[in-house]
Amino acid sequence: MSNTFAILSLLASFRAVSAAPVRWPPRSPTLRENDPYWEAKFDYRAHYDYTPLKSCTTTVTAQAADETVSAQAAGITQPPTLLTISLVNSHAAAISTTHNSNAGAPSPVSGPTTPGTLAAGATAAIAVPTDWAGVISLNDASHAASNGNSLIEANYQYRTIEQYAIADLDVSYVIVTTTPSNGFTLPITCSCNGLGVTGCNKDLFTLGSCPVPIQHGACPNPLRSDTNATTAHPFFAPCQHAAYTYPNDNTANSQNECQDGQIVCCVGAACPPSYKQTQG
């Protein structure tokens, strides 16, 4: 009996050690302003920022099961292998474009990857694999495109909670850096299955006066580095919550709305609005 008791005690001790808390980053609303990786490498994954790690005493097996149930309950659909981002130029003139992939991210498997121009009425597309993340910069063709312009920020990264890639994107008029020209150049909206999920089709240059000197075709955003801002500057206000108009304008972000693998982004005031323009 004493030997049996000793063995049971040993097993209990081993179980207590092997069942140490499992830690993983839970999902949370976007909070990109405190993400050093975002600022250092333009990591657009920061649109679904992870809160500090929390402990959980469930086992890895139970965690995986819970994550699968959570994804199913949320109605998230497993996407195709490649995500296609199409660009439609509805601007009155040609536009300049620049495509940049994040450091360490895989390259697009097809489509333009170098700076170029897109004629009025023309369409172009890139196809990206799982774990791609990057940005498309857009400007009137009278100026070169850069990260200081109106942006399409997107990623297609594998997430352990859903156990497959999630399409995440937004239109942005602000990046949290000290670059002086981060701001607005052109209206952009992005749609999935015919629904505009992010962006704003309003030409801000026709609705107000840029509060600072225009630089290379861009109206610099006065709030580009103000992580305490809760409302847009008046010039950018018509697009508040539809596009990023200040660092924490997180309603502009779209997740889980483009799981069929097709995103169509339209450039110009003639583009259809996104549904988020009604939330401004």
Structural write-up:
Residues 1-19 form the signal peptide. This protein is an alpha+beta fold and 280 residues long. The protein has 2 domains: 20-73, no CATH class; 82-279, Thaumatin, CATH 2.60.110.10. 15% of the residues lie in helices and 29% in strands. It has helices spanning 2-18, 36-41, 60-73, 204-207, and strands at residues 22-24, 54-56, 82-89, 95-101, 116-118, 123-129, 132-140, 150-159, 164-172, 183-184, 188-192, 195-200, 219-220, 254-255, 262-267. It has a 6-stranded antiparallel sheet, with no helix packed on it. Strands 6-3-15-11-12 form a 5-stranded mixed sheet, with no helix packed on it. Strands 1-2 form a two-stranded antiparallel ribbon. A hairpin with a 4-residue loop joins strand 8 (150-159) and strand 9. The longest helix has 17 residues, at 2-18. 40% of the residues are buried.
Key features of this structure:
280 residues; alpha+beta; Thaumatin; 2 domains; six-stranded antiparallel β-sheet; five-stranded mixed β-sheet; 4 helices
As a percent range, the share of helical residues equals 10-25%
* Biggest sheet character: 6 strands, antiparallel
DSSP helical segment count: 4
- How many E-type strands? 15
CATH class term of the largest domain: Mainly Beta
Q: Tell me which CATH architecture of the largest domain applies here.
A: Sandwich
Rg, alpha carbons: 22 Å
CATH fold title of the largest domain = Thaumatin
State the end-to-end distance: 73 Å
Which regions are unreliable across 5 or more consecutive residues at pLDDT < 50?
4-74
Order of helices and strands: HEHEHEEEEEEEEEEHEEE
Number of domains: 2
Mean pLDDT: 78
Look at the helices and sheets and give the structural class. Answer: alpha+beta
Q: What is the H level of CATH, i.e. the homologous superfamily of the largest domain?
A: Thaumatin
Principal-axis shape equals globular
Kindly estimate the percentage of residues that lie in beta strands according to DSSP: 25-35%
- Main sheet strand line-up: 5-4-7-8-9-14
